[in-house]
């Protein structure tokens, strides 16, 4: 069962209290952390409710589901255009659609993907924000750049220079914490990600806009904020448990 608007309002208040407390502990401003509402497996009505509660940024795992909910431009309560973040791994044959529907893709881990996205974005005359996913938790099942190869990969992008991907803006790094049920277990990989991001931001050039860290979910957002996250991706705490038996992309 999906939450009602009132239920979502109280879940949002509880989440905001957690974010405020974490910001306080970290000595950071609330404005320095963007909340990305992860609406995967929740219907378009849940997105409408979220927008009514002030949501501006949404995260989707699957391109087809993102298209269903975010192909039509939507306006947020603050008058801005609602932004769609693709946060799941994108198969090569879905990159074109992803580039069209998304404002930001968090899960890029190859030059081949960048080359495809650049072509599509040039044709669309659009600039797309890119985050590189690092498998900092070093788990077999997780996609992303290998922790030992991430730095070399980023250096290879710097070597290509600023004219290689004029329609892509490299914004930072993304990771999924360790899924142990203990938030503290993710601290080390979040700190690793921050150090890597800071190092490349300092280089400027193609990394001049590399100021974003997408890390922290329902279970570990406090640790992520303490370690410098600028975008937390939260689904369950806002929308409730996902019903994986009911994919949203089944046409009704
Ligand atoms: C599903 C998902 C989330 C949201 O996770 P919750 O635990 O429900 O907050 C965040 N990031 C990614 C990459 C996801 O796939």
Description:
The chain contains nine helices and nine strands. Helix 3 runs parallel beside helix 4 and helix 4 crosses helix 5. The longest helix has 22 residues. Helix 5 links the parallel strand 4 and strand 5. It has 252 residues and is α/β, with parallel strands linked by helices. Strands 1, 2, 3, 4, 5, 6, 7, 8 and 9 form a nine-stranded parallel β-sheet that branches. The protein is globular and about 50 Å long. The protein has a single domain, classed as Alanine racemase (TIM Barrel), CATH 3.20.20. It binds pyridoxal-5'-phosphate (PLP). Pyridoxal-5'-phosphate binds next to strand 9 and helix 9.
Q: Cofactors and ligands present?
A: pyridoxal-5'-phosphate
Please tell me how large the radius of gyration is: 17 Å
Number of domains: 1
First and last CA, distance: 17 Å
Shape: globular
The chain-level mean pLDDT equals 95
Major sheet details: 9 strands, parallel
Estimated structural class: alpha/beta
Quaternary structure annotation: single chain
Low confidence ranges: none
CATH fold description? TIM Barrel
* Percentage of residues in helical conformation: 25-40%
Q: What are the main properties of this structure?
A:
single chain, 252 residues, alpha/beta, TIM Barrel, 9-stranded parallel beta sheet, 9 strands, globular
Care to give the gist of this entry?
By secondary structure, the protein is an alpha/beta fold. The chain is built from 9 helices and 9 strands. It is 38% helix and 17% strand.
